[in-house]
Structures are given as structure tokens and as C-alpha cells.
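In this section we walk through a basic example: taking a raw amino acid sequence and producing a predicted 3D structure, encoded as C-alpha cells. The instruction is simple. Fold the sequence below.
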Amino acid sequence: LKKRGTVRVTASGLLCDWTGRRSKARPPFALLVGLIMKRLGSVQRKMPCVFVTEVKEEPSSKREHQPFKVLATETISHKALDADIYSAIPTEKVDGTCCYVTTYKDQPYLWARLDRKPNKQAEKRFKNFLHSKENPKEFFWNVEEDFKPAPECWIPAKETEQINGNPVPDENGHIPGWVPVEKNNKQYCWHSSVVNYEFEIALVLKHHPDDSGLLEISAVPLSDLLEQTLELIGTNINGNPYGLGSKKHPLHLLIPHGAFQIRNLPSLKHNDLVSWFEGCKEGKIEGIVWHCSDGCLIKVHRHHLGLCWPIPDTYINSRPVIINMNLNKCDSAFDIKCLFNHFLKVDNQKFVRLKDIIFDV
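The resulting C-alpha cell sequence is shown next.
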């Protein structure tokens, strides 16, 4: 801050003073990341594609048994333009499962994504309605009767529209929501492996605060992650596209959404993005998520551009990483088989690549 006004960060990472003039001085990387992260939105619903999409009657490379592909045209969508996509912050789209941190039982808790889906009868009515080329928003849902029951602790996602106190299904006929990750729930055992509620901490992968070229795995207070969404990645998530851990010693981590900003993205043109994904190491990612100033999130997936995913060597798993647990007070307090204990054994060690972390017992 300056006495005469506020310093702001541009999408390119340069400082501007209150007049809008760019400063020659570059702030510390940690300060830049901190300022930028405060502006980034959380993932509470499905994100639209940056381009207008079209359906092609060809087998999908993304989903088995899907007889069609959804491909991007060269036209930027109205949603993207309305959200001022050209001044948005581009970040890496991470391939995992979405999580959320909010309060449960009077303490910060990790929540897993659980969308409420219609029962068979309602789903059949909805599909027939869609096949008649009708607008899905005009379909009438009876939420109390048309949907499978949800767990008692289920909550709807924040941005879910509500009418008369009932959540309204999205255009796919789902109601996005969350359930708390309990310690002994086998259904969410990989989620629970990255949190410890006794010490209220989570295993998080992010940039090292002082070195933009280095990743860091650390135990982060859950209170620091409140109201954020994150991506859980690892051995048993989505086919393990990042090649982490092994069947004998699975490895899972949380990545805050927006954690990996893309710094040298080309112009927002279909062909330029294809060339970027195919031609440089930074492009070896699942996709891009643009965080817009109004909180809107816009994406593009490699599959939208006709490109393959997963790929053999990704940008994340090829980067150097250091372990900084900072848990001196609880060194002997963890179960011998838990991830926190494994990481404590390699605390302060640096690995040439993220995928090189292998736990031997």
C-alpha cells in the first residue's frame, strides 16, 4: 500500500500504483501469490468452456461408452466475453476430484463433492425432454420426489440457485453439493488420508513461497483453507494421471484451486492454444481455468481442442519439490502408516520431480 493510493497486481504480475502506471520494482514472489490468490474464485459448480462448443457424432476419448465428442469452435463464448476473459487470471486445471473446506462440528473440515442425481423415473423424463430439443432450464423438477435421498449432513454448493428453500438442479439435472469427510468413512478414505482433524491440518501441494520454480508439500492449518475449494490428486484418483505413489504405498495431496498461475499463455485463439498445449512443457497440463474479476470461472480442456489426456509426462509431476512439514510438536503423534508420518520421514528433502516421491517401508 502507498499513502496516496492502493497498489494493485495486473494479470501479468506487474505492480501498478494508484494512477495505473506500472512500477519497475517487482514484489517478492510470495507477496504476488498472496495478492493474486485472494482474487481467485472457488469451484462450486460446473465451469463453461471459453469457446462456443459443438457436438460431433464420434466416440469420446474422454468418457468410455459416450458416442459423441464436445469440441470447441474458434468462437469465444458470450459468457467468457461478459466475464471480461481478456483480463482474467489463467491457471492450471488440475485433474482430480473437487473438495471444499468449511466448518463442521465446530471445526474446519474437508468436504467431498457429492452431486444429488435424479432417480430412474425422473432421469428418463429429463432425457426424453432433452431429446425433444427443449431448453433444460424449462424442465419442471419436483426436488423432493425426483431425486435420490442425500445423506443427512449433505449441503448444496454455494452458488446453487434456490426456489422456496429448495436447491434447483443444473442444466445436467444434478444438484452439486458436499458431504463432510469423516475419518473412518471407507468411501472417502483417500480424502481422509490428507487431513488430520486432531491437529487440524491438511497435506497441500503449492508453489514454494520464495521460489516460483519449486513446488512445496507442507502441512497447512485447515483454518487457513476455510471456504476454499481444492483438488485432491493421487494414486487412487481419476486413474492417477500424475503417476503419484504406488498401489502398495498410495500418495494423495490437495491443491488449492488457482494455485498454479500460467504466466506465458499465448493469445486467446484456438490454434494458438493448441500449439501451446502441444509445443511447450508448461502446456503439459489437463486444461486452463480463467479466474475472472467478477468471480466467474471459465475453462478449456485439452479434449475440447481434440488433444489427448492423460499424457505420459505432465508439467506438475516433472517439477522439483521440497517437503516442509513444520510439525516439530507432533513428530511422534501420527499413526505409523499415515501419510503425515511418511512425509515427516523425508522432511526438508528435495526431489528432482514430484513423481519421484516413493515411500519405502
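Looking at the output, two observations stand out. Helices lie at 29-37, 78-82, 120-131, 143-146, 189-192, 270-279, 339-345. Residues 120-131 form the longest helix (12 residues). In the next section we compare this with other chains.
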